[in-house]
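Let's do one together. I've listed all components of the complex below, 759 residues spread over three lines.
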Amino acid sequence: MEKRVSSAAVKLVVDDVPPETRPDHGEARRIAEALLFASPEPLSANDLRSRLPEGADVEAILDELMADYGPRGVNLVRVSGRYTFRTAGDLAFLLARDVVEQRKLSRAAMETLAIITYHQPVTRAEIEEIRGVATSKGTLDTLLETGWIRLRGRRKVPGRPVTYGTTPDFLNHFGLDLIEDLPGLEELKGAGFIEGRAAAGLSVPVPSDADALREDEDPLDAEDLLALPNLEMDEPTDDSDPAADE
Amino acid sequence: MEKRVSSAAVKLVVDDVPPETRPDHGEARRIAEALLFASPEPLSANDLRSRLPEGADVEAILDELMADYGPRGVNLVRVSGRYTFRTAGDLAFLLARDVVEQRKLSRAAMETLAIITYHQPVTRAEIEEIRGVATSKGTLDTLLETGWIRLRGRRKVPGRPVTYGTTPDFLNHFGLDLIEDLPGLEELKGAGFIEGRAAAGLSVPVPSDADALREDEDPLDAEDLLALPNLEMDEPTDDSDPAADE
Amino acid sequence: MAEPLPFEDVALAERADGEPALLVDVDGFEGPLDLLLELARRQKVDLHKISILALAEQYLTFVEAARRLRLELAADYLVMAAWLAYLKSRLLLPEPPKGEEPSASDLAAALALRLKRLEAIREAAKRLGERAQLGRDVFARGAPEPVQIRREAQYGATLYDLLSAYARQRQKHFNSRVTLHKRQVWSLAEARDALERLVGHLEDWVALDGYLMQYMVEPAMRPTVLASALSATLEMVREGHLSVRQDSPFAPLWVRSGSERPAPAEA
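Okay, and this is what the predicted structure of the assembly comes out as:
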């Protein structure tokens, strides 16, 4: 850190020498390793860049670290566009003892989550159409509680129903870098089950967890943000339907 | 884990083959790495042994991991007989971000500083006599923290109380060339700091911050210099005095 | 999904009638679409080759059986049954010439698509659930080392602060001494009150000092009592309430009520 050099000097170095052989490359790598290990949250390449000596080749460092940790018990992985260390997936069965009893999602909740994931942005009515059954408020509340789904906006149709989508936490939890990495997405798309339904007439890719609203989405109303957990309360869905899930 | 072998068989292996070359050694090492990484607490060698494939040479694995991580940004360290990953000592600066906070001295601290300034060298008891209230240890600690006051010596009287005085930093901060440049009684009166009525009964000493000790001062004891911040701890002043300053 | 539980005792009776043993626990299903999907699975064929007609018949059989058992079926199961009955009749009749309405085979295809879509999303849900999950299969660092914010205090104070603190402190001390002094003052008002009480029952000359003794128990009070009493005396003499005389300089003062003006009266 004492080695701050002027930007101009760095430029010179960057142009002339391959990154691995630059004198401070090893040090920058150690710093990146330490930052990634220490951070409770995944870090973006930019997060790292701002903490590394000026001119450090962050991409090269990350590639090296990923390759280096690849065969180890701890891997450097990319989730939600950020980098973090995780125990190797193949060791799950050995580490399972450490699991603090997690609440298991009901089948209905898991299905609803999958529909939101693959069809986002999606409204409650659309979820219900696919499942053929009313979705209880409890199911959506449970999912909101996990932090994996969020209210995105309101669809520009009569009734202005809320649209749901997934969060970066969802990607973190399921170890996905991008929403496009969802398992089986290609098959579903190929079978024509994904695109077109939600955004009829709009040829936009589904799913999308991009922060930017779609053309057919309005921002949430002010009171949506205040009353988040109870938002669904007054939507015109018959929750008393005995066929409702759970 | 599928490779569970009987304890007897392991014995044989242990005796014959160096641990690093045993077929599952690498795997056990990966598991140990993952366990140490995921554990919220440092793990003992025995903790690890109970989680590793039977016959794994835990000591060898730990030695290897420590050596392997030695030059990295993250080290495997032993704390109180247990093992845990920690950011390399020389990178500890990454884990702290300095925030400089502008703070204002409390009224009590300001008054104490003023008295030290004018009456130096001065003992705590003398400060209290002038202020008419007990001076808390915290006030003097705060002032020592500012770097504006210092312990000068010990007064040659029973109890050998510490004498306080100002530092060159004090002069810098307050834009004074010499401590003698501080305004005297007449100037204080002229500037309206002291009312004429009160000035009649007051005498303002001429301060001196000379390094040389006065005739009535002894040098500080050796332990004074070691235990600087807590020096005041055992001085016989009643800090619980309800009249003590805030 | 809960395994479909055959109503065993009933199933025997049903079988006697030669009907398919497809009695299932309605509670295990999440709506008519779910039931249809399960029935389709039982055809043990690819969903693409599913016979919607056969499926419709099985569904209707199920609903019929449930009705016979007086099971209360939710409305949407019955709506689906009515629709399937309609579809079945359309499928069995010769196709009418192309009209406005969708053909029976279109309707059947749409239903098949819905089933396939539900099946697909179920598969997706399953695969999602099987993914390595954080905190269940893979783990983040157990003891992260978050960045500590180290606050360094930088004290600011001006010479003005310093000087005013000093002056404030020293004056406070000085003023407190003055206040103490004040308590030792016998005010003119107090002196006058005392003298008026004295004058009230004074018949003859009285030595003022003697009368004032009671106010001078504390030696410190002596100067102020004497001074105030003299001032008050002179004031009362001027007003004509009191007469005063002194036999010689520094001799005791004598007072008497009334406005008599004798010769010597100065102190």
